[in-house]
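Retro notes
What went well: the complex prediction finally ran end to end.
Inputs used:
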Amino acid sequence: MSSQTKSAGLTRRDWLTLSAAGVVGYSMSGWLGNLAAQAAENPNRRRSCILLWMSGGPSQMDTFDLKPGQANGGPYRPIATAVPGIQISEHLPHVARMTGDMAIIRSMASREADHGRATYQMRTGLRADRSRAISDARLAVFARAGTPRRGAAEFREHRPLSVLQPRGVRPRLSRPAVRADGAGGRPAIAVAIPGAQPVNYEDSLRVPDLDLPTGVTGQRSTARVDLLDAMERDFIDSRPGLPSQSHRGAYQRAVTLMRSAAHAGLRPSTRSRRACATATAVLCSDRAACWRDDWSSAACPSSKCRSPTSATCRSAGIRTSTTSTACAACAKCSIPPGPR
Amino acid sequence: MATGFRDAGGNGDDLLSAIVGGNKSARAGFLTKFANQTQRAKESQTSILQALSLMNGKVVADATSLEQSETLAAIADAPFLTTTSRIDTLYLATLARRPRAKELERATLFIEDAVRRTDSMADQAAAYNSALADVFWALLNSSEFTLNH
């Protein structure tokens, strides 16, 4: 056994040795019992599952899947169990009496052909390519979290399996802070990557290439994204299938992400937060589409809001109130401010 | 290379740094991000990070910049080319085919619209070039470029 394995904490062998000596067994039964009792008393308890992932345990052909009579079978004899038709190893006679309470899974299929990758998928619910699966899950959360109000609820609802909230760190999902340097606060979400070392949350959450390249304005980006989308629609029509759907889907999510990041991170300093929120609500019902450049709808790419004048906004069905209270926030509004 | 963009530091050092760790260069980061996650072409999937990288990253930004990209500069500057033949050339450079009638019309409208929105002659020339760059950008970001080229 390498020193690396030993340094990772108690090895399974250590554990068994300690259990045999009565050191661990007693104390473990103590907290486990307390935990179970507390969980049982909690009326809001959720169904839980304890997973014992016993890498290095005895082979399936010696235990639950003997494959009798087959070339790839093991050396032991099968015995009948409490459930007619289920046979397990002769060395597990006690377990054999309990098969009525067991569900033995002898084979399963996934898209992974490699044990390491398949293990990763089983443990996290995500495909093994970290740069893809984990990031996508994280970004999906971030994209939703970037839109205030909806963020917190959607985070709870759609939280990917591998996203955990670290103890003592509150996700800032409702309203990311704005820093003087213009870098927006990111929602603090930790992602559990098996075997990963703790990292700086802010750094780990910094999404590369989220900002537009130098010299590309929000308006220009919107125009060319629209052009791209028109091209993509034609391509998908002529060649439906996973790759083209996936390509367009990823782009749409990426655009949402860019816009919500711009929305959350950068607010014009000349307006108060309240005014901005009001302007957004009145002028643009499509928050995720709003660019950073200007809260005025002239810069807003949303198809729902093309004009900054309140008359147009109202006619577009976006304006909820005919009083100019809310429109006062928008410098370009043609209706004068009314009483707040 | 379709983009006409040459990486100044593409001499193998980057790959080395990717293998031995340390400071990952942009190139190595790009390669990592686009590492083929499956051998089966029919299951190829695009990730959000890949999309962001292609839309906003340095590689494509440079490739669609008049100052950096030889392909784009040549197409934009050649005085004998019409808008139609410039669009033709961009399609040939990226997708190895000419645009269909509908595609040509869409790209032409896109460029004309951009020019129409500007007032002064000097700005119009700049708007024309940046619209041409945007057509190039959209082609480089398209499914067809990723999947069919």
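What we learned: The two ends of chain B are 11 Å apart (CA to CA).
What to try next: split runs per interface for comparison.
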